Amino acid sequence: MSLDECIWINTKRYNKISSILRVTVIISSYLILWCQVVRCVPPEEPVKCSNGNSNCVITNGYGSFPDRSSCRAADVVFPVNEDQIISYVRDATKIKRKIKVVTKYGHSFPKLVCPDGEDGLIISTKNLNKTLKVDTVQQTMTVQTGMTLEQFKDEAAKAGLALPHSPYWAGVTVGVGDGFVKVRKVGVGDEDLQAVKVSLGVLGVISQVTFKLQPLFKRNITYKTTKDDIDLGDKALTFGQQHEFGDITWLPSQRKVIYRIDDRVPVSTPGNGVYDFTSLRSIPKSLLESARAAEDVEQSLGLDTVRCTDAKVATKALLHGAFGLTNNGFNFTGYPVIGYQNDIQSYAGYLKDHNRLSYCGWDPRINGKFYYDDGFTIPLTKVKGFIQDIKQLVNKIPTSFCGVDMYGGILMRYVTASPAYLGKDEDGIDFDIIYYRSRLPLGPRLFGDVTDEIEQMAVFKYNATPHWGKNRNVAFIDVIKKYKDGRKFLKVKETYDPLGLFSNKWTDQILGLNGDVIVKQVGCAREGLCVCADDVDCGPGYGCQGVVFGLAYLLGWGSEDVSGHFPGNLTGFVSILKSVGVRSLWMQVAFSSTIYYIWAERNHRIFLGNELDADAVISRIKFHVSVRLLYRGKGPYDEIVDALNA
């Protein structure tokens, strides 16, 4: 994508950019048949004010920052054009007031959007969502910066244009200053452009952007699953060169790899496929909360082998549903799936519906999914070694990655080097790893030592650069030193915002200007706020030594003999379920009977060997599902059982 033009006003660039969570809710993955037509509650906005547009609290789309705190601001404003932005910035600058920009849906994990203190100003781009100009001859499109990618790609398609997968920046426009606010012009050949490309919001506010597009095209997608991951280290180095839009999903605990073979084809190629990714669809609140409650039970009781079964069934369901691909917008009939770029390149089904029946999985208004998201780029020259180290972890602790596999495994996407000062210095692979997070500070997290070791290996051993909008604090330790042009960025920052009005404590820390990102407090290592160094960081009884990466300082938590933790009867399980929020009687019966059933069979060695057979588990719980869930009467659950039987 070419950014030909971008209006900056003391500037900010803001990226706008299930697993079956339980054996008991194995059915939820098959519930996609129903969820496709269920309407959902759109995500909550990140700014909430108690007095009109004043006295505000800012959070993110997940309802929690890495340190679990919230941010405050005195006021929020909703400009609709550039003149209003200029006015708001001018007034704030006169009194040296901190300023931050938020989008309609704030999905950054770190505190990029927090103004320091409680007197700051929030500028929302919610109403900056208009298309300003489309030039089909020059193949450019100018939009306000509050427009979401979903809106943008559809507007471009109407003009016969498409946003390609790889950003290519060509210029940023701007104007003159008046003493309190500058409208800067940065064009092709201007060195400042390389700072503007990835600005972290510390340069100012963007008002509009002009993108260089391409003629609309189609894509051809096929998912291919391998029986093992033996050659992943070698194949990962070349797969991205072979397929323009290809990516890789690695399921370490299952030793499987899913390759997305995804290439551009002419627009004349037959096909009207649509990608509505399964994990981003809306799900009924009751199922999301029940699944989360059961996952909490797994964590509390140490049911690691049950999680492995969950992961296998989840993978089977995702593959059966082609990850949400359809050949015609309604159903999947087989590969390849061919469709227009705007129907394939991104997916956000939970944003499109507006009846209050379903939610996106991580909506903070319900007790649904709650997780960490580690995203970092390993240089391509070091990818094979990183993959081999992860395999060593799997070999030493086979069940330790089942929790990662439950959340879709490790997603590997290809990125190219960028001239941006805070962009990628060399070609690499983005690794995206999602895993369970307790809603309680210092709450249990099975094999937290393993995910922590992966994080620390990536950051310290392989010099990974973190995704600026994801990750826990540990991933950002000394991050500015990893960018060869980091000092050049700081020089531009000093020129654009000498008063530091668009900076905050977090951005100063990650840019190496004021302290570091480590937060020392009791149990900080469990939250990824520090590296485990002593018992105060880790908690009594925990060690600080890596399994593969000897220099890693880790919490010694993981799977343990939890047989003594199990209650001896169903009544005990019901008590546990009540304690984690399962209030419905019928759901208590369903969960407790199924969990108890699996535990009892495991202890009586009915499940033999190191692996559990997903098909066997499905058949063994069908009776429980049908009796405990379907007795409520005819409805969507019938389709679930039909899918299981199929």
Secondary-structure blueprint of this entry?
Blueprint: E1 2-11, H1 27-30, H2 32-35, E2 47-51, E3 54-58, E4 71-77, H3 82-94, E5 99-102, E6 121-124, E7 131-135, E8 140-144, H4 149-158, E9 161-162, E10 168-169, E11 183-184, H5 193-196, E12 204-212, E13 214-215, E14 218-225, H6 232-242, E15 247-251, E16 256-265, E17 274-275, E18 283-284, H7 285-301, H8 304-320, E19 325-326, E20 337-340, H9 341-344, E21 358-359, E22 371-379, H10 383-396, H11 402-406, E23 410-415, E24 428-436, H12 448-461, E25 465-466, H13 486-496, H14 505-510, H15 535-538, H16 570-579, H17 585-603, H18 614-630, H19 636-645
Parallel strand pairs: 1-10, 4-6, 5-6
Antiparallel strand pairs: 1-11, 1-12, 2-3, 3-4, 7-8, 8-12, 9-13, 14-16, 14-20, 15-16, 15-23, 17-19, 18-21, 22-24, 22-25, 23-24
- Strand percent estimate: 15-25%
Helix content: 25-40%
By DSSP (H or I, 4+ residues per run), the number of helices equals: 19
N→C terminal distance: 44 Å
Counted beta strands: 25
Derived from helix and strand composition plus strand pairing, the structural class reads: alpha+beta
Query: What Rg, in angstroms, do the CA atoms define?
Result: 25 Å
Give the strand line-up of the largest sheet: 20-14-16-15-23-24-22-25
Name the average pLDDT.
Answer: 78
Q: Which runs of at least 5 residues are low in confidence (pLDDT < 50)?
A: 1-39, 166-178, 555-570, 596-646
Assign an overall shape.
globular
List keywords for this structure.
eight-stranded antiparallel β-sheet; 646 residues; alpha+beta; 25 strands; six-stranded mixed β-sheet; disordered N terminus
